[in-house]
Amino acid sequence: MRHERERSHAPQQWQVPMKADAQQAPAAADRPPSLHDDPRAFLDRMLAVGQNGDRDQFRQMTQILANEPPGRALRAEAIEAVNQQEQHAAQQAMQVQQQQQQQQQQETMRIGGRSM
Question: Which of 10, 33, 68, 112: disulfide with 38, CB 3.0–4.6 Å?
Answer without folding.
Answer: 33
